[in-house]
Design goal:
This protein is of the alpha+beta class and 424 residues long. The protein is built from 8 helices and 26 strands. Strands 5, 7, 22, 23, 24 and 25 form a 6-stranded antiparallel sheet that branches. Strands 8-17-20-19-18-21 form a 6-stranded antiparallel barrel. The longest helix is centred in the last third of the chain and has 20 residues. The radius of gyration is 44 Å and the shape is rod-shaped.
């Protein structure tokens, strides 16, 4: 069924809204030159006649023409675009760039820790370090312990040595080594020919003491960790980012970390957890800060700060400015207003992928070279909705199927109506 509208009314509406170009207004004038489909009363659209004449109210009838085929989108004049501040940009190919923000935690390297564990029951006879966090050097005394099993094996070794029983002495020495007897204590036993008890446990390397909870006189069961000595030539900076990270982070990427009361540190990632890229897991990465730099910034293990990472996609993608995207609601797809010609804009659904700080990757809906509205989008969308509503109202005024020829207006009394046109 053809859409119908009075051209003079439509032309005035297009001018008022700024949605008509000179070409569209010229088309409206051409419509007037065509034969009208029928004529209607200005104040009563239900009153229809096949030709010109007067309405029951004495007003000239208005011609109704067939509307031209509609074009998708909204047409906006140059003056209206300038008033809206509309700006158009092309779709191009390039890298995505963005910023990730997360947390940073300082810790001692896990692969450079030594845990001191007894393989036999014993007692702490003395503790030579004051507390956790104490820095020690290799060979420094940590604990003095009394291990009865070690004392028995030493006595067996001394007895075998006194009797010249080499096989028994060798067996006793092997048993001491197997149960964790310190090598320097075994050497002292061989050299001094004296029982070494209590045994002094010494730091295996330089580092910081962790997980120390034993006090003098405490009983230690076999297999119980007594403390940990962690090398601190460098500190690990454990980094945790949101699972919404849009691009794989790779080792070597620059990251900036800031801890309370310390200047920001520029670092580079040394390790990235490749399995924590999807789902609800956090993205876990790591950087390393050397001991001199950590000391100059007053950093200690356990400190918590913030991390900022600038990322860039490793391959070029078809991208659209985020300012052009109209976010879909209630399951509807995202859209952009695509420029068609000089003054027409068509809403186009798009499927986006990764998002950066200024651009988003386009999977479907746009191609490089397409032009989209990047400024004034909301105002154009509002104008398009108004144009669509106007078209809907015009479609609702289609009276082509209504027959008014049998309507009887003879009983209508217009004699009392004042058509003098005087001032109100």
């Amino acid at each position: 069924m053809a859409k119908l509208f009075p051209p003079t009314v439509a032309g005035l509406a297009l001018l008022a809204l700024g949605l008509g170009s000179p070409e569209s207004l010229a088309q409206a004038e051409k419509d007037e030159a065509r034969a009208p489909l029928y004529w209607v009363a200005p104040m009563d659209p239900n009153y229809r006649r096949p030709g010109p004449g007067k309405s029951p109210m004495g007003m000239d009838l208005i011609p109704v023409y067939e509307a031209p085929a509609s074009t998708p989108g909204v047409q906006v004049s140059a003056e209206r675009r300038e008033a809206f501040g509309v700006r158009v940009a092309p779709i191009d190919a390039g890298p995505l760039k963005g910023t990730l923000r997360g947390s940073a935690v300082l810790s001692l390297p896990e692969d450079q820790r030594t845990r001191l564990v007894l393989r036999e029951d014993g007692w702490i006879t003395a503790r030579h370090i004051p507390s956790e966090g104490t820095r020690v050097v290799q060979g420094e005394p940590l604990l003095s312990i009394d291990v009865p099993a070690w004392a028995q094996d030493q006595e067996a070794w001394l007895d075998a040595d006194h009797r010249g029983d080499a096989p028994l002495r060798t067996a006793a020495a092997q048993r001491l080594r197997r149960t964790g007897f310190p090598a320097e204590a075994l050497e002292a036993l061989r050299t001094l020919k004296q029982l070494q008890n209590p045994i002094v446990l010494r730091a295996p390397h330089d580092g910081l003491v962790e997980a120390l909870s034993l006090t003098t006189g405490a009983f230690v069961a076999a297999g119980t960790p007594m403390m940990t000595v962690a090398q601190d030539d460098a500190l690990w900076v454990e980094l945790y980012f949101s699972p919404t990270a849009q691009d794989p982070i790779h080792p070597g990427a620059a990251v900036r970390v800031a801890f309370p009361q310390a200047d920001p540190l520029p670092l580079n990632l040394s390790w990235v957890d490749g399995q924590a890229a999807t789902g609800s897991r956090r993205l876990h990465a790591r950087a390393v800060v050397g001991r001199p730099l950590a000391e100059s910034h007053g950093l200690r293990p356990g400190a918590v700060g913030e991390a900022t990472l600038q990322w860039e996609s490793q391959a070029s993608v078809t991208r659209v400015p985020l300012s052009a995207v109209l976010r879909g609601v209630d399951g509807a797809p995202d859209q952009v207003l695509k420029a068609v010609g000089a003054d027409r804009f068509v809403p186009v659904p798009i499927h986006l992928g990764r998002r950066g700080a200024a651009f988003a990757e386009v999977h479907h809906g746009l191609q490089p070279g397409d032009r989209v509205v990047v400024q004034g989008t909301f105002l154009l969308e509002t104008e398009a909705n108004r144009a669509a509503e106007l078209a809907r109202l015009n479609a609702g005024d289609d009276h082509s199927t209504m027959d008014h020829s049998t309507m009887d207006h003879s009983t209508m009394d217009h004699s009392t109506m004042d058509h003098s046109g005087g001032d109100q």
